[in-house]
């Protein structure tokens, strides 16, 4: 059983201890390399099954990393990140909205985390050719010529930042201007935070929050490889991602999406909705240390975790489980362990911690939302999915890593999301106020 926790701050059934509207979750949707839907993903996660496999959708000869957690059961043609991100987001949001029973015309705003949008090399080359550029260079005048000749083939629409959000807003009839954001690997959690804050301010009674990423393509793979961020342990693929293990050597790219329907508890109860859990706290902390590395002292990570706890009005002892960022890179796992030790003290050695990236890879801008969904499923089912491949523990990291599915009562989870460039967002999720 979980250790004793401090009680919640004084709150009503509809407002928290600070007098703000409680934010309830009434719908969940998810798609990852493990499958489509919450049921399929939960079954695979708790079985310790990996969705990481050899890449088949494009040639990988000559690449150091040839594996990823790809979503191969949905149409991935054309292989363009914005279109794949939109496709995954639509599937996840359809499930979440249907479960919530909130109606076909969504009564709130859309907050969606998407990958940084930029034209990819196949489209750049085709555009240069269409513009008549013999050397393949794409200049402003070349773009003007291509636009005048109307030979964009719709790419100008696909590669505009915000287009994915616009299309999703049309699909789900959300209200107001859709918010599109990209804060690296914390993006999915940030989308949830924005929805929570909007409901707390009384601006809306509901928010559709989505994190999505379809970036497993040659260009992204090469870029991360050049940063020496990816695992090169290609065989067997399912053993490559090994968070908190001594022999970890990098993360594995993944893709997918998750969606959450957030509502004020008062609104959800008034319409008789089933409440799946609550977002009790959100914390964020920027870190200007480096464009890709985080501060080695872990100070911003520690601050983000503490801010989430403070926002929830809870002490560290109230947390039953940490859903780790746990990327499987040497530096990130060390920094997260350091941060958890600072926040939880000696209890960190007895506090269950797990990383689902061991099974689905790092889904980048979708990760924070996917892990929030997994955290809520953990709470509802009383089961913590394992961190697979934890065969060689790192003795320098004094953590209680869950290496086999653990049946234990979980009421409150701290879900961590730490992004390149030091963009850190943490969420506290619970089964009750």
Automatic annotation (TrEMBL):
Region (Disordered): 1-21
GO BP: any one term: fatty acid biosynthetic process
Database matches in SUPFAM superfamilies: Thiolase-like
Compositional bias of kind Low complexity: 1-12
Cellular component aspect of the GO annotation: cytosol
Domain Ketosynthase family 3 (KS3): 20-431
Family indicated by similarity: Belongs to the thiolase-like superfamily. Beta-ketoacyl-ACP synthases family.
PANTHER family reported for this sequence: 3-OXOACYL-[ACYL-CARRIER-PROTEIN] SYNTHASE, MITOCHONDRIAL, POLYKETIDE SYNTHASE-RELATED
Name used for this protein in its record: 3-oxoacyl-[acyl-carrier-protein] synthase II
